[in-house]
Structure formats: structure tokens, C-alpha cells
Write a structure and sequence with these properties.
With 158 residues, the chain is mainly α. The chain has a single domain, classed as dinb family like domain (Four Helix Bundle (Hemerythrin (Met), subunit A)). The protein is 65% helix and 5% strand. It is built from six helices and two strands; from the N terminus they run ααααββαα. A two-stranded antiparallel ribbon has the order 1-2. A hairpin with a 7-residue loop joins strand 1 and strand 2. Helix 1 runs antiparallel to helix 3, helix 2 runs parallel beside helix 3 and helix 2 runs antiparallel to helix 5. The mean pLDDT is 96.
């Protein structure tokens, strides 16, 4: 499980970087829908990282961030995920974690499922954002997993 999960985390970092490149090139940096969805995506990644590091989850109240802030937070999150991924083994992946925003009944899942959720949640919202770019006349990018494999698993270029 360690290998495929690390591959998904690496793909996610690359795909997020490609999304930010496409968004930057679109001239739509102030689009409220893109900023809102991306903030949700990045904030959720940050919340899962807090859970995985054993920290209290904090959803800070703040104004809707701009493009540069979102990009910087996303890149930092991927740096932390990459470091976390290097330390994964079967025992650490099986360790249970509690997802506090699902309190009743408590949501207790293995670390492997928490990391999988991070990847799948981001994929969902990144797809919405790419569709939004297309709807506004911009040029979205294909960030399918198979494209990443075909390109020989490139590192993200932020």
C-alpha cells in the first residue's frame, strides 16, 4: 500500500501545481468561485495534515485568500505530505486517526484512508476548478493520473 499511496500523493502535488499554472495563465485570479473552491481544497488538506500530525484542527476565520496565498499554502502542504510519505510503512498506515469534524458517531479511520481521502477530495475540487476555467473561456489542463504516468511522473513545478 505504501507505494501506490505515495504515487497518489506525488500525482496530487503535480496536478495541483499544473492547476495553479493553468489558473495563473487564465487571467482569472480574482474569480471568487475559483478562490472559494481552492481555499476549501487547501484548507481541507491542511486540516487532514493537522490530524495526521496529532495537532488540534483549526479552521481559522479569515477573508477569502488571493491566488498567491492559496498557491503558497498548497505548495507548503504538499511539502509536508511528501515528507510524511517518506516515513510511511504498513504499521503507520494502519494507525487509527479520528476525524473531528465527523463527531457522532466518531469517524475513526486508518492513516491510509485519511491520505486517500486527501487525494480524492482534492481531485474532486480540482476538477471543478478546471471546469470553471473552461466555462470562463480559459485553457484547463489534463491532470489525469494516466497523463502523469505517461509523462514519466514529473515533479510538480510551482
Amino acid at each position: 500500500m505504501v507505494g501506490p499511496l505515495n504515487a497518489l500523493l506525488s500525482h496530487q502535488a503535480w496536478a495541483d501545481a499544473v492547476f495553479f499554472y493553468a489558473w495563473s495563465a487564465s487571467g482569472l485570479l480574482e474569480d471568487e468561485d475559483l478562490r472559494t473552491r481552492t481555499d476549501h481544497m487547501v484548507s481541507t488538506q491542511e486540516a487532514f495534515l493537522q490530524v495526521l500530525k496529532g495537532e488540534a484542527v483549526v479552521f481559522p476565520e479569515r477573508p477569502l485568500p488571493g491566488f498567491q496565498d492559496l498557491k503558497a499554502r498548497c505548495e507548503l502542504g504538499h511539502q509536508v505530505l511528501k515528507a510524511l510519505g517518506r516515513g510511511l510503512d504498513d504499521a503507520s498506515l494502519a494507525k487509527p486517526v479520528r476525524i473531528p469534524w465527523f463527531p457522532d458517531p466518531p469517524c475513526v479511520i486508518p492513516v491510509s484512508d485519511a491520505l486517500l481521502q486527501v487525494c480524492l477530495h482534492s481531485q474532486h475540487h480540482r476538477g471543478q476548478c478546471m471546469a470553471r476555467l473552461r466555462a470562463l473561456g480559459a485553457a484547463p489542463k489534463n491532470v489525469d493520473y494516466i497523463v502523469w504516468l505517461w509523462k514519466r511522473k514529473p515533479e510538480p513545478r510551482w
